[in-house]
Amino acid sequence: MKVCTFCATRILQSNEAWDYHHATYSELKQSKEHHCIFCTRLHQDVTELNPSRKDERRKADWPAYRWNIRSLAKTMNSKETVVVTFRQIPRKPKDKEDVENVVEETIHEKPLPNRMFYLFPESDMDLIPDPETLGPSTNPAISGGAQIKSWIQTCNETHKNCHKSREAVGSSAFIPTRLLDIRCPVGAPIKVIETKSVEVKGPYASLSHCWGQIELLKLERGNYEQYTGVGMPWDALPKNFREAIEIARFIGVGYIWIDSLCIIQGKDSDFKDEAGLMHQVYRNSYCNIAIVDSPDSTRGAFRERDANGVIPIRYEADGKNGMLERKPWRIVAGDLWDKDLLQSPLYRRGWVFQERMLAPRILHFADAQIFWDCPSLSACEALPAGLPVPMDSAAGPERHWRGKLQEPETLGNVALAGPNDHDSLGHFWKTAVRKYTSCDLTRGSDKTIAMWGIAKLLRDGLMQEYGYGLWEKNLEKHLAWRVVECTLEERPSESKNEFIARKIPSWSWASMDGTIELVQDLILAPAIEAEDTPADGTTQMRETLIDEQTPSSLTPHRDKDIVHRSKSRGSTLEVVWASGGSGTRMSSERRGRRTPSPMKAHRDEEPEFRSTSLPIQGHVGRGHMRWNTLKMKWMLNILNLSDAEIECFPDIKPKKGNEDDENPYFVVLSAEKVSRNQEDQYLEEEELVWKGSGILMRKAEHGRYKRTGAIRFGNMAEDMWQRLQTTYEKEDMLANEYDAGHGVKFWLE
Length: 749
Known about the structure:
Layout: H1 5-12, E1 18-20, H2 25-33, H3 37-49, E2 65-72, E3 81-88, H4 99-108, E4 115-121, H5 131-134, H6 140-143, H7 146-158, H8 160-170, E5 178-181, E6 191-194, E7 204-208, H9 224-228, H10 239-250, E8 255-257, H11 259-262, H12 271-275, H13 278-283, E9 288-291, E10 313-316, E11 328-333, H14 336-342, H15 350-358, E12 362-365, E13 370-373, E14 378-380, H16 395-405, H17 425-437, H18 449-462, E15 466-467, E16 470-471, H19 475-478, E17 482-483, E18 516-517, E19 528-530, E20 541-543, E21 559-568, E22 571-580, E23 585-586, E24 614-618, E25 620-622, E26 624-628, E27 633-637, E28 646-650, H20 659-662, E29 665-676, E30 687-701, E31 704-716, H21 718-724, E32 738-739, E33 743-748
Parallel strand pairs: 7-8, 7-9, 9-12, 31-33
Antiparallel strand pairs: 1-2, 2-3, 3-4, 4-11, 5-6, 5-8, 10-11, 12-13, 13-14, 15-16, 17-18, 19-20, 21-22, 22-23, 22-24, 24-33, 25-29, 26-27, 27-28, 28-31, 29-30, 30-31, 32-33
Helix pairs in contact: 2-3, 15-18
């Protein structure tokens, strides 16, 4: 890679802060063919995301990008940095007739993302490898593997946080049920050992890999005696497994855990038992080996490479640009970690998200280089001393929480919210759900268990119950999760396709596929009840957490009924979550009563609900959902509330003519009074308005509803809020079903 003449002259040697990039597609393509680091990335985006811009007749579409260059402010932890950013130039219609074409293409083509490239003074780079050191392959037997050994040695000897985490995990002395014994001679058969009957001498490695569509070697009841007796012939192992074993041996480990060979598959599988231990398997491994670039078991971990293409490119500045002094600089793509690692085939798999978060350290074998991750350092062969601060936004938070998850007993002391997102437990869970749900699962029935490893550690650390992706405290606030992109035609939990179907209630985000946005950070404070707002405009709160024990005496094994009540000026939503240990259930018991639940023997197992029906009391309304072409969003129109702006987030694509989709029921789950225009200095008096969230529903049967989406509103005046507190068709309800103040009692399925 290099910098083309155009980019060197027009960007790096210019004193302009910004300007336009290539004027035509052919110019961009030509620079790409000359291996320009900037133009190669931009050309890839145009080709994959905006292919219509390749049409040379569409001259009005070019230039497609504008660039700007700036110097980043130095901090205690960062050094001199210059950043070049490329941004898309929105298409402009040539005339009135072209307006529809531009709108149509905007809908069907994805926008070109911003691309950032960092320039670091060569003298500030801690260590830059040369091509000879990197070698022509990621196979440590060919390249020497010196960098791998250096990372592990440094982690063992100097990373205090990592050492502390290993001590915390090591104290449990956990060993997986089965391991592969790889201490045998090279090429000899590999045995599966039962660790209860065979002594394990030394640590074990673990493997993250894609199963893919090709039939995979598996441990089954039919081959169990062979695999645990004479073993599996070396040549019978798929390439991924052979090369993972070679890596484990290289780092001095005598055992390795591979899911398909250490969990009995097929008929009479013990997957259900072993899945609950997955968090232990990865947390206690010496090192996790991740084969990130192979979509199946046949591609292997190792790749041949051009070492010159891996090393950060060198640019000799001539001093014409005031930001770039006359000295050598190194240029690195800002999305290196994301593009080369997190967007790889492996990390698009849902199961692997928790593997990545729970493993104490990881060797990622990617397309052109090896990456390293531990709680103290994120690095790659191109940047072996670690990612520079400006490039650490993706790896940094995960590294931080990887360390925290190694010590779950300390999670109860972690701030729920803080000045830095890295330190906020609530933000971590919200981000974790978003990242996890953006990944794919082969089977929809794995939706909750594939996230259970992380949730289990949070549950134990926070001492509150969890089930189906939601937490017991302030449950009503968490029910209003949103589907980021409404693209599905049917709800996965109602699908008849065996790979999509799952038995999960509609109120859980796990009933859906696609990226999920939680609207509420994880909040552990007791649920609060907003009493009628006094004349002075303030809002008084009082706790309604029904539990006779003090917080300091609570244990993860307590029996309790938690009542969540959200009451606002005569509107009450009440949810009761009764749980005992991990035998969690929903209950409709009256407040103050205890209905003990038998505890499960194994807290490592995912909770099972006795009933998945949520009892709720609140004002159930009905409105008309329509698409607002001007605002490009779904809106809810309600009779006598024409001025209210209530945004809708349907779970699946609304069907035209479908009564449930066009005229959904809804219930407000939580609301609060806030100040409108708090920063408006011209307001003589502070104006208070309502904002809140809720869900869309369809009626399943009498008194029972299923979720179909979410709603949110803001800037709602007091009179509108009062009109919103009306139950639809309340006249037809029985006295024991409806209360004028609290609304109707119903079940959410």
